[in-house]
Every structure is written in C-alpha cells, then in structure tokens.
Amino acid sequence: MPVLIDGYNLLRSVEKVSDTETLTDTALCRLISNYLRYIGELGEIVFDGIGPREKGPFQNLPNLDVTFSGSQVEADEIIEIRIEANTAPKRLMVVSSDRRIVAAASKRKAVSVKVELFWAEMMATLARIPKKKKFAEPLEKRQGITEAETDYWLKVFGFKD
C-alpha cells in the first residue's frame, strides 16, 4: 500500500509526543525510508515551503520521494492533488491528522492514518528489524549512482560547470 505523508504534520506531532532529541526533517525522512524499505512499500512525504538550499540529503532515499511544496503552494494542496490523481485510492495510505487531508482521503476512500498511530507503528516495526538488516549495503554500491548524482559530484569537485 503506497504511503502519502503530510511531512510537517508528522514532524510537529512527533516533537510533541516523542522523548527523542529534536528530530530534523532529514532524520525523519531517513527513518521513514528505512521503514518503507523494510515493509516493501513506496511512499512520498510532502513538506511545506521550498526546503533547505541543499537538498542532497533528501535525494536517493530508498522507497521514499521527498517533495517540497514551494513558496506559492501549501503541502496540503499537493497532497490533495496526489490523492485525487491516484488511480487506486483504496490502496493508498494517507498519513495526516489535518482535517482537510483526512477529508480528502475519505472522499476517495483512501486509508487515512493519524500521524501518532503511524509514528508508533513505524517505530515499533523499526525496533524489530535485526541489526544486520538495518545497515544493509546501499543499492548504489552494486548498481552505481544515477546520472544526476554523477553530474552533481562532478560540479562539486569542479570537473563540470
């Protein structure tokens, strides 16, 4: 079941209930990526705003696409568009406690999960993963990096304009 997540809704909720140190958006995305990879699902997390200038940590996360809404559009609007455009909404899990998002999911008969429940389930699942499986070799080690990544690193090291 693909997962669509209201990023800052989840992050703010976790900050309120979790006893962990301050969780960053990049750390949250890594946790979600590990969870999705373990359960064998794909997901997208949508954050409000343009995000950080350097988006490298958000790229190439296994099983997770990270989207920033930009300065003119709210994340809620993008999530609603994704829900509406989904061709199999009954198979879509929408993670948000925002009434507007919950209503959009309900209208399309998508599975709506409150952020607190998703967080608890995700953390419980991650705790059950055997240590050796948590740190599996990255896929890039065997397959190589993408052309976009190659271009990025060539620019970083001054080999390409």
Could you characterize the architecture of this molecule?
- The chain has a single domain, classed as Rossmann fold (3-Layer(aba) Sandwich), CATH 3.40.50.
- The protein is 49% helix and 12% strand.
- The protein has helices spanning 7-17, 25-39, 75-85, 99-107, 115-128, 131-134, 139-143, 147-156; strands at 3-6, 43-47, 64-68, 93-95, 111-113.
- Strand 4 (93-95), helix 4 (99-107) and strand 5 (111-113) form a beta-alpha-beta unit.
- The mean pLDDT is 88.
> How many distinct folded domains?
1
Shape: globular
Question: What is the CATH architecture assignment?
Answer: 3-Layer(aba) Sandwich
SS-based class: alpha/beta
Sheet with the most strands, sense and barrel status: 5 strands, parallel
- The fraction of residues assigned to DSSP E strands is 5-15%
Terminus-to-terminus distance: 41 Å
Number of strands: 5
CATH class value: Alpha Beta
Helix fraction by DSSP (H/I, runs of at least 4)? 40-55%
Calculate the mean pLDDT score and round it.
88
Low-pLDDT segments: none
Gyration radius, in Å: 17 Å
Number of helices: 8
Q: Kindly report the spatial arrangement of strands forming the biggest sheet.
A: 3-2-1-4-5
